[in-house]
Amino acid sequence: MAAYDYDLFVIGAGSGGVRAARLASELGQRVGIAEEYRIGGTCVIRGCVPKKLLVYGSRYGAEIEDARGFGWTCDGVRFDWSTLIHNVHREVDRLNGAYTRTLENADVDRFLTRATIEDPHTVKLVDRDEPISAKYILVATGSHPAMPEVPGKEHLISSNECFQLEALPDSIVIIGAGYIGMEFATIFAGLGVAVTVLYRGDQVLRGFDIDLRDGVADAMRDRGVDLRMDCNVASIEKEGSGYRVMLKEGGSVPATLVMAATGRLPNTRGLGLQRAGVALGWNGHVVVDDFSKSSVDNIYAVGDVTDRMNLTPVAIREGTAFVQTVFEGQPTAVDYTFVPTAVFSEPEIGTVGLTEEHAREMYRAIDIYKSSFRPMRATISGRDEKMLMKLVVDAETGKVLGCHLLGSDAAEIAQMAAIALKLDVTKAQLDGTMALHPSIAEEFVTMRQKWEHPAPIKGSDAAA
Ligand SMILES: Cc1cc2nc3c(=O)[nH]c(=O)nc-3n(C[C@H](O)[C@H](O)[C@H](O)COP(=O)(O)OP(=O)(O)OC[C@H]3O[C@@H](n4cnc5c(N)ncnc54)[C@H](O)[C@@H]3O)c2cc1C
User: How far is CA 194 from CA 174, 253, 393, in A?
Assistant: First the structure.
């Protein structure tokens, strides 16, 4: 008789948990997984996927406007939120089914309930008296929106509720200007909602390259988004059928809805981790080593709950590396260099590698190549649109350290640039690559002029 009910019990059926459960089961391990909400996790149910669909939906208004310059007549154009959100839900349901079938086909036992940890080898399910024993436990519980501690916080919604709105608000205040705040500002503004973004720092998108931050802020202001920096929320008060956001600096902003996009916190509360001896970090994340092992030998953690790099592909890669390490006898550490990332704002951001600021801290001398131009499409659409491309290069070796884009298809271009950077591409090799004409991406292989740094970088992270 087996010593444990399962070789592996996974808590959380999101990006990291589903991948690890499936791979371990396919290797012949007995695997169980618990999910307290919906199989698929944040990315599929209330993150990347539904968000990107809403971004697509929000872009059509401007595209229809642009079409006029190309000879199209677009009269009587109307938008219906209930159609969009209904179709998004239908796609989310389809993916939820696909993830469930993946687990079924891999013979993973599924428990649709909350799980907690009793001791290093015992899991307790909320809807079951019998505890479950497991040789290994994988914590893949993800994260949740962190709500600011301000009077009236009960009036706030988070990104979770944005996917459940029955009607679009006339106006919204978004507190926070990280990538989720900027993406929802784009979505709502594109759908005709009056958007105000309040942020306590001095520039949006802390952590991204400063040229992208400045560029996206200018462009979003041009598109009518009211971005207010150095703004601290004092309280949120109910006013009529909406709310009023009071500012510490004085003044207030009325809105139909108020959304907090003020970061996310790891899902570890009440999980029993400390009882089992698992060390937690400053914000409650599970502290792990390079192989995702916690302070307890048989308990591992992957994904957002470890607060390393909170992105879906990273959670998936960590889940894969966990299985290779524990069940395939190949200790595998995830390589976090050159992870491409995007902000699906309007204009869009795509980025990979070091920002200019980081590169200047880490390298003796760097060269910057920058190009800002009007994309061909904008010449006829009449839209005042700029594309920005920037390369950060190690002056001594010529190695490209960072690649940053703002504008159409930035995310798609950044994914391809990531391959080159991962292969240690040099600026000379980019220059030696034939351009694909006419395209936006060709600018990457035709940037010849070094950019001289005229002044200290403004809006630095340290000041934010
Ligand atoms: C609005 C939004 C947009 C995003 N956009 C992007 C993007 O464009 N690109 C990108 O790469 N990343 C994006 N992300 C981040 C991405 O969604 C996460 O990094 C990723 O989902 C993390 O995967 P995970 O496996 O760690 O956790 P999750 O996918 O969150 O899965 C954790 C699961 O565990 C379950 N759970 C928690 N506690 C328990 C318990 N005690 N018992 C049972 N089940 C439990 C949860 O219900 C959840 O389903 C976005 C996130 C948000 C919120």
Answer: 11, 12, 40
